[in-house]
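Notes from the 1:1 (GR / supervisor)

We went over the backlog. Supervisor wanted to see one worked example end to end before approving the batch request, so GR pasted a single chain during the call. The sequence is below; no edits were made to it. Supervisor asked that the structure be written out right there so they could see what the output format looks like.
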Amino acid sequence: MSPEEILAAARAKGLRIATAESCTGGMVAAALTDIPGSSDVFERGFVTYSNLAKQEMLGVTETSLCAHGAVSEEVAREMAEGVLAHSQADLGVSITGIAGPGGSEFKPEGRVCFGLAQRGLQTRVETIEFGAIGRANVRLGARNHALGLLAAALTQGS
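Structure output shown during the call:
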């Protein structure tokens, strides 16, 4: 589903979308707001690159950051839920990952965690291992996956 189709589906359901992005730096928000007329669906985007920004803007807990690290499903969940808590959106997606170069034995380059929160539904989280395919490719893959999560949420029950 293209960004245009995501916006149309959200519009048809009367839903507003917001994003919380770390390693993608706003690429999902940009993909949606590149579409003329998106302002009736896209509510806001949070670019929370630092841990402090995740805490201040989205309410991610220091406990989760210390226990699991920024690149974790726990933090992706808190980011997605923070999107809904700090906006008027009905549907929020979050991305936190290691675009590279670099990484570690425990958190390799290309690991990206996603959260999807929708009012009234349980938050879903998942991790995708894109691998060491280069920073630009990891970021593009993460953007596309997040758009896919939004598309799937909007077509469920249709």
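Supervisor's comment: The chain has a mean pLDDT of 96.
Batch request approved.
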